[in-house]
């Protein structure tokens, strides 16, 4: 039958008095305890604390034993493996608190009878001794190795930290940051377990569901080309009206008009091309080949054009005289040759140029073309006007003087002075004036009130200041001085913490904040002064403030005891 147990409640806190969640508690008998049913089993038990740092341990009551055995109870931090508790305890035959039965070092010496019994037990119970040795090795491993998960080159590792990398496990043997583990080992890591070989191919999976039905064709449209004879157009096939679904494309060659063998422009049935007569009938051209020239018709447009022509037997001279000669003039056949010159108006659309005239026009120069002066141009021909304009422009190279008052829409780009007596531009001077470290603005806030709290959660102190940076690259120097920070309470070592915030973001470097005080008596106080250089990276209004809290509930912390606390914000150009 199992040995009887009682509930022993243990509360584990760290050095700051904060409860530790997930702490491992090991309770082990210091020697085998004989009873009427044999040795106590198990001689070693493990427990884990909850969110309040509490663990309820079911332990065998040592008071029922006959040789004065005890439990050795040890607790370890879940993150660092650091030992948080190591006590001896004699468990009574009723539920109790570990703190009421624990014996802190130095432990009381063992009696002669206890030592003799230990020798006897060791002689008659080698199996139990081996078991206790194995349990001791397990305790050592718990206190030694610390699992850190996957290797990270940015993490600082200590000796006995354990990581995984590329499927293998490694143990750190020398503190390092950035030196990766390798399978053959190096100065910082030893291989603990290498990655196994790849497994065999798995069995064929279940066949997937049938795919969706394909997209139907909604319409086709020519997307490139213009249908010109001898060219190739591209047509796109769409699956919806909006043309967002493209099914495919194809090309179409446009035939060339002519009488080449086999040219066909339209057919009702391609199989009829084997019979020329049937093909002509299908195309509506059945009478083309067997109609004589005398019976071939003339189109309406052709007939209208022919009606404007002179009859073949007409008197050309009389026609020219009647149609083109001025009233009362006598025109002979020689005069008729001038019909394209003197009788036309001066408009260039009605007169033609000779080849010699065209050559002269093509060879005209800017100096030969007249110019009508306008604005500030005085020259009367094109070349002179161009020369006059050239004198008004500023050359890219060389030294020139610009007279008169000029207005520029943007600052002139001028090189910075590089030699003695070189002239500095305003832009250069402005840039030098805005150099690194220039103080851009100062904001200050003063607190005279005294703020108290008994809360272990941070509360506002009342000290705050708002600054709007002129540049997102500026630094903000935060300085707090004056007043005092104090703590008192019923606990043996009351302590309090304060921190600096930008908006809702804490700027404190660690869990102890920027102000930490721990008393050794009922009342402790310190001057509360510090500075911090911040990079808010914004041009929006930014609030800096402080808050504070006590470490143990029931104690009291005070911010600014009867004095004046000043917060100064200084914006410094980056």
Keywords:
574 residues, five-stranded antiparallel sheet
Strand order within the widest beta sheet: 5-2-7-8-10
End-to-end Cα distance: 77 Å
Structural class: alpha+beta
Shape: elongated
* Strand residue percentage: 25-35%
Q: In terms of per-residue confidence, which ranges show pLDDT below 50 for 5 or more consecutive residues?
A: 335-341
Main sheet attributes: strand count, strand direction, barrel closure: 5 strands, antiparallel
How many helices?
9
Radius of gyration in whole Å, from Cα? 53 Å
Arithmetic mean of pLDDT: 79
Secondary structure: number of strands: 32
Helix content: 10-25%
Summarize the structure.
The protein is α+β, with helices and mostly antiparallel strands and 574 residues long. The chain has nine helices and 32 strands.
């Amino acid at each position: 039958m199992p040995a009887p147990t009682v509930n022993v409640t243990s509360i584990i806190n760290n050095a700051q008095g904060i409860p530790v969640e997930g702490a491992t508690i090991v309770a082990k008998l210091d020697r085998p305890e004989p009873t009427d049913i044999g040795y106590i089993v198990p001689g070693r038990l493990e427990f884990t604390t909850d969110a309040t740092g509490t663990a309820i341990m079911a332990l065998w009551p040592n008071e029922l034993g006959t040789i004065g055995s005890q439990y050795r109870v040890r607790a370890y931090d879940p993150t660092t493996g650091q030992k948080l508790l190591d006590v001896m305890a004699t468990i009574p035959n009723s539920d109790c608190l570990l703190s009421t039965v624990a014996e802190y070092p130095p432990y009381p010496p063992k009696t002669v009878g206890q030592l003799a019994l230990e020798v006897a037990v060791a002689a008659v119970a080698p199996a139990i001794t081996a078991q206790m040795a194995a349990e001791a090795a397990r305790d050592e491993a718990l206190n030694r190795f610390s699992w850190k998960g996957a290797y990270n080159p940015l993490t600082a590792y200590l000796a006995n930290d354990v990581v995984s990398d590329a499927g293998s496990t490694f143990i750190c043997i020398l503190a390092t940051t950035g030196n990766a583990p390798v399978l053959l080992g190096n100065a910082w890591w030893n291989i603990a377990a290498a990655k196994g070989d790849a497994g065999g191919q798995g069995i064929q999976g279940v066949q997937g569901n049938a795919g969706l039905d394909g997209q139907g064709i909604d319409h086709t449209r020519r997307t490139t080309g213009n249908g010109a004879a001898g060219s190739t157009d591209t047509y796109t096939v769409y699956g919806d009206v909006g043309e967002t679904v493209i099914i495919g494309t194809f090309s179409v060659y446009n035939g060339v008009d002519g009488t080449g063998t086999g040219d066909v422009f339209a057919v009702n049935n391609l199989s009829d091309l084997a019979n020329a007569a049937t093909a002509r009938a299908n195309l509506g051209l059945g009478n083309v080949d067997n109609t004589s020239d005398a019976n071939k018709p003339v189109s309406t447009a052709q007939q209208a054009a022919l009606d404007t022509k002179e009859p073949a037997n007409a008197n050309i001279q009389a026609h020219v005289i009647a149609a083109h000669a001025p009233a009362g003039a006598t025109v002979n056949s020689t005069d008729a040759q001038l019909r394209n010159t003197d009788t036309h108006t001066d408009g260039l659309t009605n007169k033609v140029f000779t080849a010699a005239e065209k050559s002269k026009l093509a060879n005209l120069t800017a100096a030969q073309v007249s110019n009508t002066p306008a604005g500030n141009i005085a020259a009367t021909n094109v070349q002179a006007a161009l020369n006059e304009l050239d004198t008004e422009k500023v050359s890219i190279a060389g030294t020139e003087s610009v007279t008169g008052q000029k207005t520029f829409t943007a600052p002139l780009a001028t090189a910075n002075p590089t030699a003695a007596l070189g002239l500095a531009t305003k832009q250069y001077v402005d840039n030098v004036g805005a150099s690194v470290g220039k103080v851009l603005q100062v904001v200050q806030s003063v607190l005279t009130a005294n703020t108290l709290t008994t809360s272990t959660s941070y509360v506002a102190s009342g000290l705050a200041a708002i600054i709007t940076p002129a540049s997102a690259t500026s630094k903000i120097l935060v300085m707090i001085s004056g007043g005092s920070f104090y703590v008192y309470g019923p606990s043996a070592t009351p302590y309090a913490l304060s921190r600096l915030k930008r908006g809702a973001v804490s700027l404190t470097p660690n869990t102890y904040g920027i102000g930490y005080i721990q008393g050794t008596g009922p009342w402790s106080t310190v001057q509360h002064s510090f500075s911090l250089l911040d990079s808010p990276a914004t041009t929006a209004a930014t609030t800096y403030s402080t808050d504070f809290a006590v470490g143990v509930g029931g104690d009291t912390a005070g911010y600014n005891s009867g004095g004046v606390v000043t917060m100064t914000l200084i914006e410094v150009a980056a």
